[in-house]
């Protein structure tokens, strides 16, 4: 989910060398005859010493590993009964400071159950994200309504996450389905009739949270290959940002590397060639428990910010590009909201707004939500009260972020954790 200012690839092949015993034809025939005599019907039996036949031994059925369905409906705990979820892509840390030895760092990780639990929750969220987006990428087609796409993704996330409450596990924030010149923060409100077209460039940005640990990952979905250079630029830029991130790395250095990669691309379109620009007022960010924007920003241009990334932090490395001015503004009907963690109710007078605040706090806490989510939990005629909470700075609204009308924008995003011994790209998959 975008933050705006107002501002080992281990490809070890497993060599299987099965040994094959060669038998003479006569020995094979003899062995077959003996088997027939012992067990005519193919079941194992034992001869009774007094001439009878003992009870047949039932063959044990081998337990088949449970597989995911299409659409995804099988809870992840059933696919991973050990409750240990797949590790992300491991990359070396980019740091020049040797504060502790590698062995000391490994010992810290081994001995910390708290560290394991928080990373394991993130890995579960990442695996859910991979499985859901894999299905979405195959299923999304021109002619589908945006509401249909959003519900497909969010419904699958909820089923795989197996949360008994919204805050326990499920969607990390509303599914962003921003089209063309809209870079971020658009999801359909109730009654929206927007339909996906062949020529659209859609940013699919959705989150998964487990016990408040949020995976924030996004991709750009297109149908027309003419947009391939645009998609390639932002994908390469995100991978550059992931590569440059590390403990004690200054965020401006990440931004400088991202910008250099992104702006080396251009898009030939309709007889013109468009330079591809970074959207300079959109950023990646760190992620805190139940808080999608944790306080640190990761720019996608060299803005001189000397803030350093720190050990143990979780970051969403996201990059945005545009064929327009490379700068977005708030514009259009709001769909995204989140409770302000530091809100005060001192000026709140309306009983309806107080009741809505109570429901938001109980259901979502500080997790972002949208109007569709309020519909799902049974809220009706809430818009006046919701706007009252926004005016009182109790709830923050996130309007759509728009570049130049008619321009094209694209996005890719990964979540990573800076472990003591390595950098783990949690949301990495075979697709991106």
TrEMBL record:
<dbReference type="InterPro" id="IPR000994">
    <property type="entry name" value="Pept_M24"/>
</dbReference>
<keyword id="KW-0479">Metal-binding</keyword>
<feature type="binding site">
    <location>
        <position position="216"/>
    </location>
    <ligand>
        <name>a divalent metal cation 2</name>
    </ligand>
</feature>
<protein>
    <recommendedName>
        <fullName>Methionine aminopeptidase 2</fullName>
        <ecNumber>3.4.11.18</ecNumber>
    </recommendedName>
</protein>
<dbReference type="GO" id="GO:0004239">
    <property type="term" value="F:initiator methionyl aminopeptidase activity"/>
</dbReference>
<dbReference type="Pfam" id="PF00557">
    <property type="entry name" value="Peptidase_M24"/>
</dbReference>
<feature type="binding site">
    <location>
        <position position="293"/>
    </location>
    <ligand>
        <name>substrate</name>
    </ligand>
</feature>
<dbReference type="InterPro" id="IPR001714">
    <property type="entry name" value="Pept_M24_MAP"/>
</dbReference>
<keyword id="KW-0031">Aminopeptidase</keyword>
<feature type="compositionally biased region" description="Basic residues">
    <location>
        <begin position="54"/>
        <end position="67"/>
    </location>
</feature>
<dbReference type="InterPro" id="IPR050247">
    <property type="entry name" value="Met_Aminopeptidase_Type2"/>
</dbReference>
<keyword id="KW-0378">Hydrolase</keyword>
<comment type="function">
    <text>Cotranslationally removes the N-terminal methionine from nascent proteins. The N-terminal methionine is often cleaved when the second residue in the primary sequence is small and uncharged (Met-Ala-, Cys, Gly, Pro, Ser, Thr, or Val).</text>
</comment>
<dbReference type="InterPro" id="IPR018349">
    <property type="entry name" value="Pept_M24A_MAP2_BS"/>
</dbReference>
<dbReference type="GO" id="GO:0006508">
    <property type="term" value="P:proteolysis"/>
</dbReference>
<dbReference type="InterPro" id="IPR036005">
    <property type="entry name" value="Creatinase/aminopeptidase-like"/>
</dbReference>
<keyword id="KW-0963">Cytoplasm</keyword>
<comment type="similarity">
    <text>Belongs to the peptidase M24A family. Methionine aminopeptidase eukaryotic type 2 subfamily.</text>
</comment>
<feature type="binding site">
    <location>
        <position position="205"/>
    </location>
    <ligand>
        <name>a divalent metal cation 1</name>
    </ligand>
</feature>
<dbReference type="GO" id="GO:0046872">
    <property type="term" value="F:metal ion binding"/>
</dbReference>
<dbReference type="GO" id="GO:0070006">
    <property type="term" value="F:metalloaminopeptidase activity"/>
</dbReference>
<keyword id="KW-0645">Protease</keyword>
<feature type="binding site">
    <location>
        <position position="413"/>
    </location>
    <ligand>
        <name>a divalent metal cation 1</name>
    </ligand>
</feature>
<feature type="binding site">
    <location>
        <position position="413"/>
    </location>
    <ligand>
        <name>a divalent metal cation 2</name>
    </ligand>
</feature>
<dbReference type="GO" id="GO:0005737">
    <property type="term" value="C:cytoplasm"/>
</dbReference>
<feature type="binding site">
    <location>
        <position position="318"/>
    </location>
    <ligand>
        <name>a divalent metal cation 2</name>
    </ligand>
</feature>
<feature type="binding site">
    <location>
        <position position="185"/>
    </location>
    <ligand>
        <name>substrate</name>
    </ligand>
</feature>
<dbReference type="InterPro" id="IPR002468">
    <property type="entry name" value="Pept_M24A_MAP2"/>
</dbReference>
<feature type="compositionally biased region" description="Basic and acidic residues">
    <location>
        <begin position="27"/>
        <end position="39"/>
    </location>
</feature>
<feature type="binding site">
    <location>
        <position position="285"/>
    </location>
    <ligand>
        <name>a divalent metal cation 2</name>
    </ligand>
</feature>
<dbReference type="InterPro" id="IPR036390">
    <property type="entry name" value="WH_DNA-bd_sf"/>
</dbReference>
<feature type="binding site">
    <location>
        <position position="216"/>
    </location>
    <ligand>
        <name>a divalent metal cation 1</name>
    </ligand>
</feature>
<feature type="domain" description="Peptidase M24">
    <location>
        <begin position="122"/>
        <end position="322"/>
    </location>
</feature>
<dbReference type="InterPro" id="IPR036388">
    <property type="entry name" value="WH-like_DNA-bd_sf"/>
</dbReference>
<feature type="region of interest" description="Disordered">
    <location>
        <begin position="1"/>
        <end position="95"/>
    </location>
</feature>
